[in-house]
Specification:
By secondary structure, the chain is α/β, with parallel strands linked by helices. 31% of the residues lie in helices and 21% in strands. The strands form 5 sheets. The protein has an 8-stranded mixed beta sheet. A 4-stranded antiparallel beta sheet has the order 11-12-14-13.
Length: 426
């Protein structure tokens, strides 16, 4: 094996995010997840963990490492929204650097500044982040150090890395796990951020609450065990805290909403549009941007959607801000109108059919963070954690300051609070 980085003697934290793992699933007494159940028995686990709005991946992962919601960190989709408020449709750039995406400091920045080593595997909103020592990104780099170690060990080939997106998400999650285990054994990071996507992927395809999801949870449980075993192999089990988290839940939908159909019908798109307006559909919510938004035009835009079938709410920026959304005056990522879908509906692409269309059962998230099926999981076990069993629900902005306390770091002024009741050191 390659020469590894010497391990520090201080505390270590491993954060494992199981994307879309809803609290509802964790309450199933027959869930095939023995590793998670063992961690729950020896530590603390929440009834649920409340995500921020919007209940999608990048915003919530960002909240869990910053301690603030989207009104302050400004991440509202899975990437950076560009080309909004122009004559042509906006798009989402998933390759934007963290410096452009995240408006506030993170706990991994604080760890790095304190001289600790940090690592990320398939984390999000973290592209080109200065505060990361070791990385294996969602899209691996051919010349990356960890990629080279995995190729040398025969875990992946060069062709695997070149065509990384072709196989299943489960295969990619296996490789992500091998990468995280390699970093732990060879490089001994003080903070590891690790993200797995298989459950989100399969539930988007098949809906929530079926055997496809349960079987995928069993698969993910094995991946968690691999990481625990890697920490044990590194001789650091007694000094490591494991935090098993998720970003949001998932629910089944049966109808799709095509917001751009209504915008076209309202003559807000096309060459004759005086105030071009476009929608970015995101499952349980949608963001609408106008080239020249005013209070009057926003009110008229709201009237286009209010009361339509499947539309739960159409909110102005000021109305959305009450639920933690950013204002356009603070960031160009904020929308001029926020749309929420009713349960059973999702906003989807398309502007050439009817506003409402049927779909086979699929899964979606992005609904208001008060929805029961949007609630996430939290399990803490290992060094510094009291075996308290079940604890009350709390908000996910509390995760970042809790990581900071475990690593003896100062995170600064954040909205979240340390989960002191589960820690030996208050």
């Amino acid at each position: 094996m390659a020469q590894g980085t010497g391990a520090s003697k201080g505390p270590k934290v491993v954060v494992i995010s199981l994307d879309a793992f809803g609290a509802e699933s964790l309450h199933d007494p027959h869930l095939p997840a023995p590793t998670l159940h063992e961690l729950m028995k020896t530590g603390a686990y929440a009834v649920s963990m409340r995500p921020i709005n919007p209940t999608v991946t990048w915003p919530n992962h960002t909240s869990m490492v910053t301690g603030v919601d989207a009104s302050k960190h400004h991440v509202v989709v899975n990437g950076l929204i560009v080309n909004q408020r122009t004559d042509t449709p906006p798009r989402i750039d998933p390759n934007a650097p963290k410096s452009k995406l995240v408006a506030v400091p993170t706990v991994y920045d604080a760890a790095h500044k304190a001289g600790l080593t940090t690592a990320e595997v398939d984390w999000v909103a973290i592209e080109k982040a200065d505060g990361i020592t070791w990385r294996f990104a969602e899209r691996p780099e051919l010349g990356g150090l960890i990629e080279g170690e995995l190729m040398k060990d025969g875990v992946v080939s060069r062709d695997d890395l070149v065509h990384f997106g072709r196989p299943s998400q489960a295969w990619r999650d296996q490789i992500y796990t091998k990468a995280a285990a390699d970093i732990i054994r060879r490089h001994h990071p003080d903070l590891m951020l690790f993200h797995l996507l298989a459950l989100d992927s399969i539930e988007h395809e098949t809906g929530f609450g079926n055997n496809s999801g349960r079987n995928t949870i069993a698969f993910l449980d094995d991946r968690v065990k691999e990481i625990v075993d890697a920490v044990r192999d590194a001789g650091e089990l007694e000094r490591t805290t494991f935090l098993i988290i998720s970003d949001h839940g998932q629910q089944s939908v049966y109808k799709q909403l095509h917001a751009n159909v209504l915008l076209k019908q309202s003559r807000l798109q096309g060459v004759s549009a005086a105030n071009p307006t476009f929608c970015i559909p995101e499952g349980g919510f949608a963001l609408v941007y106008q080239k020249h938004a005013t209070a009057e035009s926003t009110a008229a835009l709201k009237a286009v959607f209010a009361g339509k079938p499947g539309v739960r709410a159409a909110l102005t920026p000021e109305e959305a801000a009450k639920d933690g959304w950013p204002l356009p005056a603070k960031t160009d990522q904020a929308a001029d109108l926020l749309l929420y879908a009713d349960n059973g509906y999702e906003f989807s692409e398309g502007d050439t059919r009817e506003f409402v269309t049927d779909t086979k059962e699929v899964g979606a998230h992005g609904y208001p963070n008060t929805e029961p099926l949007m609630q996430a999981i939290f399990i803490a076990s290992g060094a510094g954690i009291v075996a308290k069993g079940e604890i009350p629900a709390f908000e996910n902005v509390d995760v970042a300051p809790t990581i900071a306390r475990l690593l003896h770091l100062s995170l600064g002024d954040v909205d979240g609070k340390v989960l002191a009741d589960i820690l030996w050191e208050k």
